[in-house]
Amino acid sequence: MTKRSGAEAARTGYPGWAALLAVAVTAAALWGAPAAAQDGGADPAIEIDRSDVTADSLISRHQATPRDPNRGPVTNLPLPRYVSLKGGEGNARRGPSLSHRIDWVFRHPGMPLLVVAEFGHWRRVEDQDGAGGWVHYSLLSGVRTAIITTDMAELRSRADLNASVLARAEAGAIVRLHECTPDWCRVSGGGEKGWVPKTSLWGVDPDEIRD
């Protein structure tokens, strides 16, 4: 992470998809170089593909019933909830419009983000460290990913500490999230797939079950 002028910064703290091997991956080799973003500049990635409209992009214009505080006022989806960065870059702004200053620039495709608020076509997101801002919904995906938080995390053949180790990954690697039991999740990346304890992941709730 490098500090930009004023309160702005470029967010470059996570590698791309993990190159999971039989030995540990080198996360540092996957880090991108910081790049400056201009104040108030247009976000070229904000192009709405009508064939790719998901529930997270739909605006609910009529709400006659009292709003559930645990659901977004725009999508009626749960808050908070996890999403991922769709493209290679996403500007996180101080407010929900292009006129607001850019505070962070997320630069790693697939990195998991936590949606904590909604306003129109904008979602307020946070990363693993709580940094973030307002991102246009077209830059986000419902594909679930997670970040490895334990160095040399072991991917096992089954959700069992006695199962054989298929691969290892360094802390900071971004992986695709699949099934989850109360204590384990199956993840994939770099052509490898295996089960990892939830305690070694950021991007999934402790009590979340996925089929």
Automatic annotation (TrEMBL):
Residues 60-80 are annotated as: Disordered. It comes from the Bacteria. Pfam families: SH3_4 (PF06347). InterPro entries: DUF1058. This is SH3-like domain-containing protein.
